């Protein structure tokens, strides 16, 4: 089994290097919920074609990217942040990392240039698993689970390298995986 750490809210899921599902290929997911009722999280490194102004036309600062949080409920907007001093009501899911909060406050702060992409990340849709589904996928080595990451890394705009950076940060046991080609037939 690739993952010695159990899944939990606030942990990262890192897709195995040859995952064929286009929704999760080379994905890094932050889990926001994990219980016997199922799991939920957001893909951190799949930027959509939309900017925040495309989905919220009433927000004047609209250049922030919107990420594909997952294949479920793509018509919903979610966010994580590391600015609890600015955004009230968020749920702390990891040390210094929050999910959700006062959305009207967020719109005001974004419109007035008081939030940056280093503090907040928006997602269209989410990734979800039914009870026991994620546990089975982890047993099948589809995912590596980690609770060791820097919150700042999650807000990087270099989503192309996020998967690789997170894999390397896991240490020698996993570092070689970071260099696997996306398509082994091209090796």
From TrEMBL:
GO terms for cellular component: cytosol. Pfam families: DUF179. InterPro entries: AlgH-like. PANTHER family: UNCHARACTERIZED PROTEIN YQGE, UPF0301 PROTEIN YQGE. Belongs to the UPF0301 (AlgH) family. This is Putative transcriptional regulator. It comes from Mucilaginibacter gossypiicola.
């Amino acid at each position: 089994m690739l993952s010695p750490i159990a899944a939990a809210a606030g942990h990262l899921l890192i897709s195995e290097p040859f995952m064929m599902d286009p929704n999760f290929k080379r994905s890094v997911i932050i889990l926001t919920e994990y219980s016997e009722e199922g799991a939920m999280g957001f893909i951190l490194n799949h930027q959509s074609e939309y900017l925040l102004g495309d989905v919220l036309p009433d927000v004047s600062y609209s250049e922030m990217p919107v990420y594909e949080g997952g294949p479920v409920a793509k018509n919903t907007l979610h966010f994580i942040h590391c600015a609890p001093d600015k955004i009230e009501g968020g749920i702390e899911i990891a040390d210094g990392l929050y999910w959700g909060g006062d959305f009207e406050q967020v719109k005001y702060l974004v419109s007035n240039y008081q939030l940056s992409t280093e503090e907040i990340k928006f997602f269209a849709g989410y990734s979800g698993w039914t009870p026991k589904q994620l546990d089975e996928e982890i047993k099948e080595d589809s995912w590596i689970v980690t609770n060791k990451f820097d919150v700042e890394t999650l807000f990087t705009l270099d989503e192309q390298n996020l998967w690789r950076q997170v894999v390397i940060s896991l240490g020698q046991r996993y570092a070689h995986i970071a260099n696997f080609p996306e398509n082994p037939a091209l090796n």
